[in-house]
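Our platform keeps sequence and structure together, in a single record for each protein. This encoding replaces a full spatial description with a residue-level series of whole-number codes. We quote a single record here, exactly as it is kept in our systems:
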Amino acid sequence: MPIAKPEMHFFICNSYRVSGQAQGACNSKEAGDLLAYLETEILDRGLDAQVSGCGCLKVCTEGPVMVVYPAGKWFGQIDEEKVDAILDALEDGEDTSELEID
């Protein structure tokens, strides 16, 4: 049976280190809460997407950081308002470059 692959996969940095402990810039800025918020928004909007927390993405000055694949778009200083703006743009097929990390 083939694996169901989502159209999009969202990764939010939670600053996990090798030890498994969450620490650092993204975690200290409530990235864990953003995971739950993003998951709820994706379900509410009926998007075909997966959400995952991940280890450090090495752009701590931009934290919390979110990456969207397969588009390969990187977004920094994520909060609930910015998540909404990104999801709105992605749903409408609009350009997100103004929201992305340079």
